[in-house]
Amino acid sequence: MLQTRHSLLRNYPLIGHARWLMEFIRPYVRQYLFESETDGTPINRMFRSVIYQRAKGSLDTNPYGTKLDTQRVGYEWIGHSIAARHHAPHDPETKISIGGPHCSQPYQASIFNISAMSFGALSNNAILALNNGAALGGFYHNTGEGSVSDYHLQYDGDLVWQIGTGYFGCRDEQGNFDAASFERVATKPSIKMIEIKLSQGAKPGHGGILPADKNTAEIARIRLVQPGTRVDSPPAHSAFGTPLEMMQFIQQLRQLSGGKPVGIKLAIGRASEFVAICKAMVETGLAPDFITVDGGEGGTGAAPLEFSNSVGMPLREALAFVCDVLTGFGLKQQVKVIASGKVFTGFHLVKNLALGADICNSARGMMMALGCVQSLVCNTNRCPTGVATQNPALTRGLVVPDKASRVARFHQETVRACMEIIASAGLKHTSELNRSHIFRRISETEVRRFDEIYTDLEPGCLLNGKSPVKFAQALHEASADSFAPKRYIAETEQGLKALQS
Fold first, then answer.
1. Nearest to 122 by CA among 401, 369, 389
2. Where is each Glutamate synthase domain found (predicted)?
3. Where is mean pLDDT largest: 182-186, 215-219, 303-307?
């Protein structure tokens, strides 16, 4: 109960040993556990093992060859080069500059960071450990839409303040956006960027609920709501209603924050809506400094089953689409793209970067490094490792300094693995990766490169009338002054006229 390395043993000093018994016998049965990449568990056992080993600083090499079926459809790999490079351990980590022409405080971001997880969903000690890990490792920590708590600020780790539809931390009594509250928080030195959450991959198009029994006095103070009351986050924003208005809102936040980068996060639903956003960028000359693309496979502590499994475009397709549309409108160099959704390993980073992402975020991977053992009780306040609970008797099990070093180590080792893979292809920098480097088996007898599956667009082709056929419908439907497709607007107007007559 007094040791600080294992959260489970601090909280459950007797029965908690069962987990280490299973870990002890794992090498003898791993050939039965690692037969395929998708084995029915929430996170593949192989990825989970790698995360734990890297976070603890243990040996993360695998004996006896590949554990994946290289002949199965969907298997992916990178083509190495005969002229491979050596990636030295002392080589500096790759940093990406985020900030467009309207940004006066650009930010140098790591290629791998902590994705959005709110205080309230996570415990105070979990937030402290994540932020301390970010400070130790030199990467950013996304606050989630629960606003900026004292725990986010204690270790001065770099923060991305996420603002959702509930405007927590920057709202008035009616739940509308409040500029004065926003400016008061956004100008804090630890906050490096602002992210407007339009939707998230786990439940796109679905609002959130903060139950009354979880709305403690502390959480209410941080979120600017009344304690002990149920607080609903609506499905859509009230501060803007059209793509053009959204560009003006982005510029407002940029000015209020003192010129810090402002971006948006979304899961892709209807293609014409994102095209409409790009049309608004071109029309106004304003644009977000970054776009976080959250795949439909994105995680959360609690979401309706149907939304988790059946709503939202998967990350690979969404990422390729966003990068193609930005390229087609001549915006890709100005707007950085961040990929989020089941990013656990260095090769996951490589695949996303090859598709067009500049940076990757990870939530579940960082939670695993923090000590999560996938008890799958995130929504019950009974997390045994003290990660996803507000119960002080359980959060005490999570010792901040120990877990912070694990988070920093997991980041360091994952970035190292990514850079070593890139070096094996003869490349020096992540920006040199492109779709021609990654291969996918699409049938038992056929393999294609990513650039054959996700065809690259010519820069500016969506502006000069030379767009590919597959973008024609979205271009026709999209309008900068409405998120709704033109066809839907026309049909609605005709229906109203018919009703009136």
1. 389
2. 110-427
3. 182-186
Strand partners, 448: 440
d(CA 250, CA 334): 15
Distance CA 387, CA 375 (A): 11
Distance of alpha carbon 429 from alpha carbon 422, whole angstroms: 7
- Write down the residue that tokens 């959204």 correspond to: 246
What distance in Å separates the CA atoms of residue 459 and residue 451, rounded to the nearest whole number? 15
Distant-in-sequence, close-in-space partners of 493: CB < 8 Å, separation ≥ 6: none
The pLDDT value given to residue 200: 80
Measuring CA to CA, how many Å separate 26 from each of 20, 69, 99? Answer: 10, 20, 47
User: What is the pLDDT averaged over residues 377-391?
Assistant: 85
Residue with tokens 């099990």: 397
Average pLDDT, the chain: 87
DSSP symbol at 425: T
Rounded to 5°, angle at Cα 180 from 178 and 181 = 70
Contact 343, 349 (CB under 8 A): yes
* 23: Cβ contacts below 8 Å, ≥ 6 apart: none
- Greater model confidence, 487 or 104: 104
- Nearest C-alpha neighbor of 105 from the set 187, 2, 224: 187
Q: Tokens 């049938």 identify what position?
A: 443
Residue/partner pairs of 160-163 with CB below 8 Å, 24 or more apart:
160/113, 160/116, 160/191, 160/192, 160/193, 160/194, 160/195, 161/185, 161/186, 161/191, 161/193, 161/194, 161/195, 162/116, 162/195, 162/196, 162/197, 162/265, 163/194, 163/195, 163/196, 163/197, 163/253
Tell me the C-alpha distance between 342 and 348, whole Å: 8
Return the closest-CA partner of residue 115 out of 366, 444, 370: 366
Neighbours of 359 (CB within 10 A): 26
CB contact at 8 A, 193 and 110:
no
Domains and CATH numbers, the chain: 1-501 (3.20.20.70)
Q: What is the DSSP code (8-state) at residue 355?
A: H
Indicate whether this model's pTM tops 0.70: yes
Strands 359-362 and 336-340: parallel
Cα separations (Å) of 481 from 72, 252, 340, 478, 496? 46, 18, 28, 9, 20
111 pLDDT more than 90: yes
